[in-house]
């Protein structure tokens, strides 16, 4: 391939030319400090100021088989794409790499091997050298020594995480052929920061482990063959689907807004979760990714696509979840957290519970990180036992299931130290399993922080990198909830990009860098929270105002009311009377009152003041007023009442009723005619015809009375006003008390609701445990049934706890016999020491084994063992009976066969002996003992070559015996000569045979003497 036509930039680093020679890099391509030239380049942080420098950075990662994929990728990529390319491959750490020279053959762009401090330029390819890790800061490439061993390094993940933080939406990650899962964690970080992810189609990869691991994260935008990746990359970069910078909604985009609301409605209808309070930019970016995946360029078209494809709604829901996490994310932050946790843990009483809540736990890495961090903190406490309880919640059911399983791939080695892996994990095939003691302290549950009640009484609340995806309104709602959920002096641990603007009074910052804060014990009304579907408001419910007295009299039941009034009238007065309230409204009329009361003009109203005769109006009004205020009876006499026959004197009595309860507060007005003489009538008539002065005098008297009444009324009104003020203050105080009581009631309700949530969560855990125990019980039952071993489980009092069905052959037990002592049952055994043996095992904690026989002739191997719990406590005994009847029968048959064979040998006339393969004599017959003068009992067990003082130690005989043992073939007519003590020399003719049983060799040999000569 020819040299590139375009000359390199004056500030570009040293390229690789086709012949493999490195050209010198211009001076300004490396950002260094001249004063430190002797000690190496020192990076100077200079953020790019030129907008033209905000080009996209494409990271290509791979390992085995990726050279071919890179060739196909760069051959289809133009040299003027405007992007920078960084190639990170797994290279041999102790050898120089020739990758830059190789890649230069496939592209017209300049290819460089990265040097520390090199600045990125567009239309350039940068290659990572061996035995280095790469990071990016302000478009500057920085080489760092690797911290992991060569076999455990993950250079692609390392660079992608740095790229995601620095380039954010300008980052592009491409995963090519390779072994392992390097890159799977880093691409999550790229996605979290709105970057784009592409993966080589695993079907086209020479090694598909890395592509498949990347696809399994479900965060991939495109899966294509390497030669198709460049075209899709440039299409994505040059023509975004939605014309918005970084997904921001522009003014006038009413149609996308309406479509977005429809999308929210579809997601909420199918999943039950509302994303309307998530940040719009984040939501648009995720929707863009799904629209790109289906090549849809119109919002309304995508809404129709969602309506027609419910599975796409589920995929979009998972896309919006943004489940990006890892173990010990920002390890320095967790180290700082320990320093603030230790004082809280030391202040905890012994056996108390340390409660932690981690909302948005995703797949559980952060929750388990907290468990490990807390356990390491507990290790620093002097002999104090504390219980840990970590609530990890999320709205993603798949993530919760993954977290509960506690299985993670091998690439977590880059984030978890070897010491922690050894302590908290178990290495299994394909990755690591969280140990059970760590899983037991973490309770995972589905929980929507947007609508479900929070967990309360917390010592630590960890909500890292969740608030950044939520709208400012929802963030303002959540922070007071966090304050409410924490104990006094509890800790709030947020992500480095999150803040508590507007709520500085609720929390005291402890670590500004890592956003660790302490809860302030200040009152705060959660009523200020808006748009929350769950009840967290501590504002008192609206207290109903005290209703003023009704303008109309409340209806009373006539029968009971009439009876009470009549009883009262009979006990006090019989004359005409009315019962009124304080306003003069007539409630009951007794007798004929027409002489004293008459209907008032206008609309009918039963009011005694309106209906009273004019002559007695002011006296009646004053009497009623005094009786009501002073709660005493008022008597007014000589009230003049005009009649047809002249004037009648009337006694007016107003009685205040305080009993019975039904009449309390009412007034009884009684009209009683007084005896009026003729003289008094004439005086009244004469006064009627008085002069004008007399009339004026009467009017002045009435006016004086009226003024006095008015003055009294004013004073009473002022007194009433003071009382009303006092009553109002009391009502305000009562209202505050009611508000406080209501707040306490709401707090109790919220606590009960939170406790109910926790109980439901624990109930789910218990149900899972119950299912596991049921499965284990089923497995144990089938195991015991399959082994057909009769087993009885006894407690320490020798009562039967459980038994297998096979026991019925030995002891006739029924399911209803559980709990009864075994001493109550008769067995089918010819064995009387069963109970004594069980007591001995319980007392001495030793096992007993013996063979026993039943009355029916069956044989069993009985074994009695102590029953030990998992905590090594003795909780009874276990008796097992194994059927060995067949073995006993075989033993008897063998004994009979042996006796029969010995009988045959004994009755043969020829001298015979039997010995085993080791040469030990097993038996000799009578002719043998007589012929060679040996004792049969002494001969048994001796070596053949020691019999008769070594007379049978003959080389020829030993060779024949060895040949018989090796080949299985006997020998005949073996002539030997030897000297026997007391007999002299003898010539013997011998033969030998293998003794078989059913065609199989028994390991025993027969030696016979066919002739004996001197």
Automatic annotation (TrEMBL):
One of its GO terms (molecular function) is protein-glutamate methylesterase activity. SUPFAM superfamilies: Chemotaxis receptor methyltransferase CheR, N-terminal domain (SSF47757), Methylesterase CheB, C-terminal domain (SSF52738), PYP-like sensor domain (PAS domain) (SSF55785), S-adenosyl-L-methionine-dependent methyltransferases (SSF53335). Keywords: Chemotaxis, Hydrolase, Methyltransferase, S-adenosyl-L-methionine, Transferase. PROSITE patterns: CHEB, CHER, PAC. GO terms for biological process: chemotaxis; methylation. Residues 260-520 form the CheR-type methyltransferase domain. It is an enzyme of class 2 (transferase). Residues 51-240 form the CheB-type methylesterase domain. It holds the Pfam family PAS_4. The active site is at 63, 90, 182. Residues 1-41, 716-740 are annotated as: Disordered. Its EC number is 2.1.1.80. Residues 729-740 have a biased composition (Polar residues). It catalyses: L-glutamyl-[protein] + S-adenosyl-L-methionine = [protein]-L-glutamate 5-O-methyl ester + S-adenosyl-L-homocysteine. Residues 846-896 form the PAC domain. One of its GO terms (cellular component) is cytoplasm. PANTHER family: CHEMOTAXIS PROTEIN METHYLTRANSFERASE, PROTEIN-GLUTAMATE O-METHYLTRANSFERASE. This is protein-glutamate O-methyltransferase.
């Amino acid at each position: 391939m020819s040299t590139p036509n375009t000359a390199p930039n004056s500030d570009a680093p040293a390229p690789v030319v086709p012949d493999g020679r490195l050209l010198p890099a211009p001076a300004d391509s490396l950002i260094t400090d001249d004063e430190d030239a002797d000690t190496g380049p020192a990076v100077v942080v200079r953020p790019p100021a030129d907008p033209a420098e905000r080009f996209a950075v494409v990271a290509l990662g791979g390992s085995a088989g990726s050279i071919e994929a890179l060739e196909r990728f760069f051959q289809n990529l133009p040299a003027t794409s405007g992007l920078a390319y960084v190639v990170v491959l797994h290279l041999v750490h102790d050898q120089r790499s020739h990758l830059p020279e190789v890649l230069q053959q496939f592209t017209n762009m300049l290819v460089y091997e990265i040097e520390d401090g090199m600045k990125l330029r567009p239309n350039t390819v940068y290659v990572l050298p061996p035995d280095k890790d790469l990071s990016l800061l302000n478009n500057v490439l920085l080489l760092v020594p690797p911290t992991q061993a060569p076999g455990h390094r993950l250079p692609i993940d390392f660079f992608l995480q740095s790229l995601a933080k620095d380039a954010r939406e300008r980052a592009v990650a491409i995963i090519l052929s390779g072994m392992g899962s390097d890159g799977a964690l880093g691409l999550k970080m790229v996605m979290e920061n709105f970057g784009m992810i592409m993966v080589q189609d695993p079907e086209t990869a020479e090694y598909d482990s890395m592509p498949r691991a990347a696809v399994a994260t479900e965060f991939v935008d495109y899966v294509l063959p390497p030669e198709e990746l460049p075209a899709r990359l440039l299409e994505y970069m040059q023509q975004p689907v939605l014309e918005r910078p970084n997904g921001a909604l522009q003014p006038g985009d009413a149609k996308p807004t309406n479509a977005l609301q429809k999308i929210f409605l579809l997601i909420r209808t199918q999943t039950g979760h509302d994303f309307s309070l998530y940040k719009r930019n984040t939501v648009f970016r995720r929707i863009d990714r799904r629209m790109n995946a289906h090549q849809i360029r119109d919002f309304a078209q995508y809404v129709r696509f969602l309506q027609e494809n419910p599975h796409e709604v589920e995929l979009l829901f998972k896309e919006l979840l943004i489940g990006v996490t890892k173990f010990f994310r920002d390890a320095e932050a967790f180290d700082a957290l320990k320093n603030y946790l230790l004082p809280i843990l030391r202040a905890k009483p012994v056996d108390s519970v340390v409660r932690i809540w981690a909302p948005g736990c995703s797949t559980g890495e952060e929750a388990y990180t907290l468990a490990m961090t807390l356990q390491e903190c507990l290790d620093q406490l002097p002999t104090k036992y504390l219980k840990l309880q970590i609530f990890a919640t999320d709205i993603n059911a798949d993530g919760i299931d993954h977290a509960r399983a506690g299985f993670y791939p091998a690439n977590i080695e880059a984030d978890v130290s070897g010491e922690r892996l050894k302590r908290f994990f178990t290495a299994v095939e394909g990755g690591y399993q969280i140990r059970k003691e760590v899983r037991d302290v973490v309770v995972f549950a589905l929980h929507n922080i947007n609508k479900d009640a929070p967990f309360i009484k917390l010592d630590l609340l960890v909500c890292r990198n969740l608030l950044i995806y939520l709208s400012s309104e929802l963030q303002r709602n959540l922070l007071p909830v966090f304050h409410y959920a924490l104990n006094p002096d509890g800790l709030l641990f947020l992500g480095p990009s999150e803040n508590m603007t507007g709520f500085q009074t609720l929390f005291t910052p402890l670590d500004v860098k890592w956003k660790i804060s302490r809860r302030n014990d200040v009152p705060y009304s959660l009523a200020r929270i808006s748009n929350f579907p769950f009840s967290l408001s501590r504002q008192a419910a609206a207290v109903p105002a005290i209703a003023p007295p009704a303008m109309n009299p409340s209806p009373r039941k006539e029968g009971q009311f009439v009876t009470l009034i009549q009883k009262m009238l009979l006990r006090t007065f019989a004359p005409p009377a009315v019962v009124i309230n304080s306003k003069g409204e007539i409630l009951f009329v007794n007798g004929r009152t027409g002489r004293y009361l008459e209907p008032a003009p206008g609309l009918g109203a039963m009011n005694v003041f309106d209906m009273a005769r004019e002559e007695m109006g002011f006296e009646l009004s004053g009497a009623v007023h005094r009786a009501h205020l002073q709660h005493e009876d008022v008597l007014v006499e000589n009230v003049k009442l005009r009649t047809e026959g002249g004037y009648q004197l009337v006694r007016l009595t107003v009685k205040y009723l305080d009993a019975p309860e039904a009449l309390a507060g009412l007034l009884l007005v009684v009209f009683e005619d007084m005896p009026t003489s003729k003289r008094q009538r004439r005086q009244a008539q004469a006064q009627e015809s008085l002069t004008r002065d007399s009339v004026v005098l009467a009017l002045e008297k009435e006016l004086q009375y009226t003024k006095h009444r008015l003055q009294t009324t004013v004073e009473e009104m002022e007194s009433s006003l003071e009382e009303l003020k006092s009553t109002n203050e009391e009502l305000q105080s009562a209202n505050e008390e009611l508000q406080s009581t209501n707040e306490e009631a709401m707090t109790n309700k919220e606590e009960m609701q939170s406790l109910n949530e926790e109980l439901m969560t624990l109930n789910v855990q218990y149900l899972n445990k119950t299912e596991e125990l049921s499965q284990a019980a089923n497995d144990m039952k089938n195991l015991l049934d399959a082994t057909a071993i009769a087993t009885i489980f006894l407690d320490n009092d020798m009562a039967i706890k459980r038994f297998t069905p096979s026991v019925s052959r030995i002891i006739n037990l029924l399911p209803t016999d559980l709990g009864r002592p075994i001493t109550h049952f008769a067995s089918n055994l010819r064995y009387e020491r069963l109970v004594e043996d069980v007591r001995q095992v319980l007392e001495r904690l030793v096992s007993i084994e013996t063979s026993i026989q039943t009355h029916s002739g069956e044989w069993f191997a009985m074994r009695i063992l102590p029953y030990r719990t998992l905590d090594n406590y003795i909780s009874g005994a276990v008796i097992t009976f194994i059927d060995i009847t067949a073995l006993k029968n075989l033993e008897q048959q063998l004994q009979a066969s042996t006796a029969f064979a010995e009988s045959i040998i004994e009755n043969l006339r020829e001298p015979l002996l039997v010995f085993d393969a080791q040469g030990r004599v097993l038996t000799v017959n009578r002719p043998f003992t007589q012929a060679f003068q040996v004792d049969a009992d002494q001969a048994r067990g001796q070596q053949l070559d020691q019999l008769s003082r070594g007379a049978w130690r003959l080389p020829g005989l030993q060779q024949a015996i060895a040949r018989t043992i090796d080949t299985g073939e006997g020998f005949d007519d073996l002539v030997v000569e030897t000297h026997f003590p007391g007999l002299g020399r003898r010539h013997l003719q011998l033969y030998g045979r293998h003794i078989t049983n059913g065609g199989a060799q028994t390991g025993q040999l027969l030696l016979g003497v066919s002739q004996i000569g001197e």
